[in-house]
Amino acid sequence: MSPETRTDTAPSMASLVSGIVSDAQKLIRQEITLARREMQEELNKAKNAALSMAAGAGLAILATVMLCLTLVFILDHYTGIPLWGCFAIVTAVLAAAGVGLLVVGRAQASEVNVVPPQTAETMKENVEWIQNPK
Fold it and tell me: Cα(59)–Cα(95) distance, rounded to whole angstroms?
């Protein structure tokens, strides 16, 4: 076979390298797009967790301000507990409720992944494929 015939039927080395580079660029663009999408999802999770925690803290403070005096005086009126004891009881109950809401927010925050899991997995697969192309 003459060299002219081989170039007509088989791709040249330059076209093969160009195709590989093009495929690599496309893969990197897809990985970046996936990473952006996953980071946006994780950001939304973080926002929701922060909102829950802020709402829990805000409600705990608001509840303390609005209910503390009312409950203290109800306890004082119906029991023989000194006024300072009534304040202590009401404060402890409201603090427990606030802590409960903060625990829920913290549990939500623990579900936020700093490294997007799907992107990390596909990048790992890509590295393995590049190292061992079969």
Answer: 11
